């Protein structure tokens, strides 16, 4: 599967912990990420990730384009629900496209856990 990993700044540690814990799972898939999230994950794992731009600089939009082209099978996006983001319109657009294209989207760790253990690509 093609999986995108995204985390807002206050959720990056949680994302790294989650990916480290499930590294053997993620190793079997093709990974994409926004710039800072992906860089930090690669620094903490042996995974290879295709990096998009940082979120505030257009990374969410780049991943949104992949959703629109049906190139992503799963998005794990640990959002920070308590901090305003300068690029909130880009975040909303990405979430909207996931619903437009019926793309699985996990915005918290427990949902992500369920997804990675249960989603099989059609
Ligand atoms: O802001 C983000 C998602 O909206 C994440 O971007 P970075 O991974 O570059 O921090």
From TrEMBL:
GO cellular component: cytosol
GO BP field: methylglyoxal biosynthetic process
InterPro entries to which the protein is assigned, alphabetical: Methylgl_synth, Methylglyoxal_synth_AS, MGS-like_dom, MGS-like_dom_sf
PROSITE patterns (alphabetical): METHYLGLYOXAL_SYNTH (PS01335), MGS (PS51855)
Sequence positions that bind substrate: 8, 12, 34-37, 54-55, 87
Active site, renumbered: 60
GO molecular-function term, one example from the UniProt record: methylglyoxal synthase activity
SMART domains cross-referenced by the UniProt entry: MGS (SM00851)
UniProt superkingdom: Bacteria
Any Pfam family the entry gives: MGS
Domain MGS-like: 1-122
CDD domains per record: MGS
Sorted UniProt keywords: Lyase
Assigned EC number: 4.2.3.3
Coiled coil: none
Catalytic activity: dihydroxyacetone phosphate = methylglyoxal + phosphate
PANTHER family named in the record: METHYLGLYOXAL SYNTHASE
Protein family: Belongs to the methylglyoxal synthase family.
Function of the protein: Catalyzes the formation of methylglyoxal from dihydroxyacetone phosphate.
Listed NCBIfam families: MGSA (TIGR00160), PRK05234.1 (NF003559)
The name this protein goes by in its record: Methylglyoxal synthase
Species this chain originates from: Acholeplasma hippikon
Gene coding for it: mgsA
């Amino acid at each position: 599967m093609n999986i995108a990993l995204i985390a807002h700044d206050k959720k990056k540690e949680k994302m790294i912990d989650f990916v480290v814990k499930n590294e053997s799972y993620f190793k079997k898939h093709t990974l994409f990420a926004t710039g800072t999230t992906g860089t930090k994950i690669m620094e903490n794992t042996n995974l290879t990730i295709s990096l998009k731009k940082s979120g505030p600089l257009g990374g969410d939009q780049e991943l949104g384009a992949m959703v629109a082209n049906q190139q992503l099978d799963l998005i794990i996006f640990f959002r920070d629900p308590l901090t305003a983001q300068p690029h909130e319109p880009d975040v909303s657009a990405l979430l909207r496209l996931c619903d437009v294209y019926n793309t699985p989207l996990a915005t918290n760790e427990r949902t992500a856990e369920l997804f990675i253990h249960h989603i099989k690509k059609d």
